[in-house]
Amino acid sequence: MNKKLTVVMVKPHKTPYVTEIADELSALQRCVGGYIEVVGNGDGTLIICNEEGKLLGLEGNRRIRDGMSIIAGTFFVVGEDGENFRSLTESEVKRYMDRFKNPEDIDQDEAEADMGITFYSM
User: Fold this and answer.
1) Does 121 map to a domain?
2) pLDDT tens digits, residue range 63-113?
3) Quick check: is 122 in a domain?
4) Are 15 and 95 in contact (CB under 8 A)?
5) Closest by alpha carbon to 106, among 77, 67, 65?
6) What tens digit of pLDDT does each residue of 23-44 get?
7) Which parts of 1-44 are beta strand (E)?
8) What is the DSSP code (8-state) at residue 51?
9) 37 close to 54: Cβ distance less than 8 angstroms
10) Which of 32, 74, 82, 102 has the fewest CB atoms within 10 Å around its CB?
11) Domain tally, the chain
C-alpha cells in the first residue's frame, strides 16, 4: 500500500487547497505536469514544482523568496523528512494556505525574465 502525503496544492489563478497524493515519483510528476524540482523553504517544508515550468511557458503562479523568484505552473508544498517527503502538519497547512491564499497575476514576460540560475548563500 502506497503512503499518502497531505500537501497544499497551488494552481495558477486559484486559491490553494489541501489534498493527499501518493508518495511515488509518478504521482508527484502528474501533479506538476512533468519532471519535479524541489525548492527548500528553510522551515522543514519544500515546494515541488515543474522543473521546466518556465521553459515550457507555463503560467506564472506565485512569487517566492520575497518576490525574488517566480514559480510557473502548478506546485505543491510538502514536508521534508531528511531524504524523504512527509505530510504537512496542521500548522504548516495553515501557514501555506495563508501564504498562498491570494492568486497572483504574473504575465509571461515577467515569468520568462526570471529564468536562469540564482545562487543563494547559506
Assistant:
1) no
2) 887 767 888 899 999 999 988 999 999 999 999 999 999 888 777 766 666
3) no
4) no
5) 67
6) 999 999 999 999 999 998 889 9
7) 4-10, 17-22, 36-40
8) T
9) no
10) 82
11) 1
